[in-house]
Amino acid sequence: MDLQLKNRKAIVTGGSAGIGLAIVKALLAEGASVVVPGRSQAKLDQALPDNDGAVQKVVADLATAEGAATLTQAAPDADILINNLGVYEPKAFTEISDDDWLKMFEVNVLSGVRLSRHYFPRMLAKNWGRVIFMVLHGFPGKAALIFLKKYSLSR
Question: What is the rounded distance in angstroms from the CA atom of residue 113 to the CA atom of residue 106?
Answer without folding.
Answer: 10
